[in-house]
Amino acid sequence: MALPPGYGKGRVFAKPLGDFVARTLDPVVARQGFSESDVILHWADIAGARLAAVSEPIRLQWAPRAPNRPPDAPVEPATLHVRVEGAFALEMQHAAPIILERANARLGWRAVGRLALRQGPVGRGRPQARTPLAIDPQAAQAAGEAAQPIADEGLRAAVTRLGAAALSAARRDRSR
Question: Domain 17-64+74-119: which topology?
Answer without folding.
Answer: GMP Synthetase; Chain A, domain 3 (3.30.300)
